[in-house]
Amino acid sequence: MGLDLRDKVLLGCAGLLAGGMVSGGYLLGDGLKRAKAADRSVTVRGLAERDVTADLATWSISYSATGFDLPTVRAEIDNNTKELKAYFAGLGFPVQALAPTGAGVNQYINNGVNTITITQRMLLRTNDIAKAQRAVAQQFDLVRRGVTLQEGSGMRYSFTKLNDVKPPMVAAATKDARAAAEQFARDSGASVGGIKSATQGYFSIDARDGETDGASDTPYKKVRVVTTVDFYLN
């Protein structure tokens, strides 16, 4: 029994539809496979450390004098300041390396006696780290000169050239992260591709050989950064 034209058209459309469904299903499945492969990744951390030496030293110095009349106390403070300047001049520091940062006067009456205390604060600032270390090592000479430093007076060493070491350290941390990703990939039968995303952690600058005692510092520092990198896996 023959098919009329209308039946032939319907059969042709059905065939095209079935073929399209097969083709579409193949393309969809292939796309899902490729999407799944593209989504494979591993997140690792990379570490970079560098030993550096501080390039700035600052010494906050406080000393005081106590007495019963203002002229006498002020004269003692002035003498202490003179001896302090002589101490640093003797070590080879320029005059401008030492500058006053403030002073305070405290008066109180004890058993009817007026007691006066004057506190002077000075700041030493230098880029000569070796000379700063000598100043700290020989600071007992200040006691011999009659200058007694108050608690909290201590040298602080700073590394100010962080921007100079940032690029190579970030590169080193990323390289370290890729090495960890490649080890993971080998263990899982994959290979490492490009970077999917990356986050740079904070740079930290700490004492190279551990914690200080709080009153003194060290010019020998360790700069550290950790990066988190997400690598594609092939």
UniProtKB/TrEMBL annotation:
Pfam families assigned: SIMPL
GO biological process: DNA damage response
Gene3D superfamilies given in the database record: Protein of unknown function (DUF541), domain 1, Protein of unknown function (DUF541), domain 2
Source taxon at top rank: Bacteria
InterPro entries registered for this protein in UniProt: 26kDa_periplasmic_antigen, SIMPL/DUF541, UCP029033
PANTHER family per record: SLR1258 PROTEIN
Protein's name in the database: SIMPL domain-containing protein
Organism expressing this protein natively: Sphingobium vermicomposti
Source organism phylogeny: Bacteria, Pseudomonadati, Pseudomonadota, Alphaproteobacteria, Sphingomonadales
